[in-house]
Amino acid sequence: MPDTIFSKIIAGEIPCHRVYEDEHVLAFLDIGPLSEGHTLVIPKEPAVTLGELSDEAGAALGRVLPRVCRAVAQATGCADYNVVQSNGRGANQEVMHVHFHIIPKPDPEQGLVVSWRAGEIDHGAGADLAKKIASHVA
């Protein structure tokens, strides 16, 4: 696991504006926010991608994310928000430590702007792919 800004924040070497912390998870304000209240939620367990996390760390994130989302929405008065998580440089991950962005969307001009170019599924190929993926779920 590379040494990252997040590992330094977890170790207390770099300060942050904490909004939540327990033995497995830390949440803090992003220093380059897309909108007011932009919050990062990270596991304390070192892992680059979500698939590398232990089940325990993943469960801890799953328990905390809804609570932090509710808190961000209540504190900012913004009911709409995006939750974004990227895995690997090719997926636009910049800090090589698992992290979730909670990004309030107060209006169309603020927060995350997404361009989604949806395709169409080939149902035959989709059925085969679903079986293949399912066979790898442990």
Describe this structure in words.
The protein has 138 residues and is an alpha+beta fold. Helix content is 30%, strand content 17%. Strands 1-2-3-5-4 form a five-stranded antiparallel sheet, with helices on one face.
Rg measurement, Å: 17 Å
* Average residue-wise pLDDT: 94
Query: How would you describe the oligomerization state of the chains in this entry?
Result: single chain
Secondary-structure element series: HEEEHEEH
Q: Describe the strand arrangement of the main beta sheet, using strand numbers.
A: 1-2-3-5-4
Tell me the name of the CATH homologous superfamily: HIT-like
- Label the CATH architecture: 2-Layer Sandwich
Question: What is the percent of helical residues?
Answer: 25-40%
Could you list some keywords that capture this structure?
138 residues; alpha+beta; HIT family, subunit A; 3 helices
Briefly summarize what is shown.
This protein has 138 residues and is an alpha+beta fold.
List the helices and strands and how they pair.
Layout (H helix, E strand, L loop, with lengths): L4 H6 L7 E4 L3 E5 L9 E5 L11 H22 L4 E4 L15 E5 L18 H14 L2
